[in-house]
Amino acid sequence: MKVLITRPRAQADSFADKLREAGFEPIYFPVIEIRPMEDNTALERTLQKLTCYDWVIFTSVNAVDVFFDNRSPLPLGEGLGVRVSAVGTKTAEALRKHNVEPDFVPDEFIPEAILPHLGDLRGKWILLPRAEIARKDLPQAIVRAGGIAHEIAVYQTLPTQLDEEGLAALKSGVDVVTFTSPSTVQNFFAVAKQNGLDPLNLPNHPRFACIGPITEKAARDAGIENLIVAAEYTTDGLIEAIRQ
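The structure corresponding to this sequence follows.
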């Protein structure tokens, strides 16, 4: 089975290796790239006042990488005054590489899975280092709970240069197209259309595999019905869902 990888090329190798180990043939076809904000003044100012916050919520590995890039240890974690939540096991692992043990790790990036575990948020400051185009559900839920949500855009999700070999494979027919974020869904559709393909009627009629419910919603909103959704919201869970 040929499995198309649409996530950024820099993050695709470990996913591809796991696909090969599972007996699949990975096809690289990145449709986005991650780039830190050129002007991170807002983040630098926030870091100077980090102890004013009660929680920092990291919703992706990308946010962790940019937040800690070339910086000395920050006052995060138990006993340091600022508690930390990491959405998903991979984000938690990224924090541990910076010697930060998250206080809370929800499995899902939905307010219902996060807010009940943060305690009384009334009057509390919550920092959200995020993508420039991040969804507003979580900060809006924090505000409804009486908290003060401070969003800082720390990275951009941008279209990337077309992979001609991946496009050729897509045109000849693959078995599964994987999506690991709403941005991969949106940019895949744009790239397919720009290159004369109907994303809802592709050669070989592949299945579409989503890493979790947020990505699944983006795929359904785009009109995709033939979906596989991972039970565990990681690339390992995605591979297991494809296998099954």
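The domain at 2-31+160-243 is CATH 3.40.50.10090 (Rossmann fold).
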